[in-house]
User: Fold Acetate kinase from Labilibaculum filiforme.
Amino acid sequence: MNVLVFNCGSSSLKYQLLTMGSEATLLAKGLVERIGLKEGNLIHKPEGKSKFELVQDIPNHGVAIDLVLKALVDSEHGVISSIKEIDAAGHRVAHGGEYFKDSAFIDEKAKELIASCCELAPLHNPANLEGILAMEKLLPGLPQVAVFDTSFHQTLPPEAFMYGLPYDCYEELRVRKYGFHGTSHRFVAHKACDILGWKIEDKKIVSCHLGNGASVCAIDGGKSIETSMGFTPNEGLLMGTRTGNLDLGALLYIAEKKNLSIEETNKLINKQSGLAGVSGLSSDMRDLENAAKDGNKRAQLALDMFTYRVKKFVGSYTASMGGVDLVIFTGGIGENDPVSREKIAKDFGFLGLDFDLEKNNGLRGKDALISKEGSKVKAMVITTNEELVIASDTQRILKAVH
Assistant:
């Protein structure tokens, strides 16, 4: 089965074409940027062939996806001979609300429910839905599956997902913790257990997805029981440009004193805060580590705040599960930044985690144990692959449907 995977943003889309057999094989991947703007561009990377780039006006997602389909069958840089060789499309959808507890076959009812969640994820769901509708128009009858960032966290108990607000805020406005990065947390937990030869149903895992967006998840017996992102991806950890946890009274005070509109306040907590806001320098961990080495105190403060908060969440989630067997590091920072991993995990001896400085040092982008032999609690770096999860789920859902 050839599955075309899409991750559609408001002005961009990423894609991969994978053949799903006993093992998945990547045929091509690419990126379309500046959708809706002049001089949009397609970067197409077929496996075993030269990269292809195209610059032209790309007014909407339909035009963008049409360019992707043409690139995939092109005589020079294509990887299939006919569009008919695409068996299904899998879409990353940011928000499934309380409707979707698993990935779902896309029918009329699913589209209605995805649309109803647009107000919960106004920056993401409309674009995700556009991609689905564009594929429907370009390739009528092609089976499509939606894979939701939120569905893995639908196993959270009420005491974890509810906020201390008047109950009607939940009943009428659907305000609760939903959590995100679920596709990644689910994938790395299963992958780690496969590597270790463990049954996930018997294990307690804390998964740390650390990147520009970051979250921690407590996984007990293969189910998410707590996660750090909330109603929006702003809750939880300090991130690249997001505040993470913040006293709401402080936010109201700032908004009043600076006379900020709702839009300006939203921009403050999502685009101007986090590592970038504290350091005044950058949201990129590499820039901050270099600046800290040169004596930049605010860069060092931002780094310390980031690792301290991850450490707090790992500890609290261990308590929420009554123990932990494995701590996972994934995402751009988790997979590639030994310094951050060391600062987070080196003091977890009290949990039974004997961290291995030597194994951790210099490790980037590889699946590996970073705890010592005999450590009661394991620590691992696990590379995530959300596109593979989407393709696998697409195959699984379609088998169940047919």
About this structure: The mean pLDDT is 96. The CA atoms of residues 115 and 131 lie 12 Å apart. Residues 196-234+284-386 form a domain with the Nucleotidyltransferase; domain 5 fold (CATH 3.30.420.40). The radius of gyration is 22 Å.
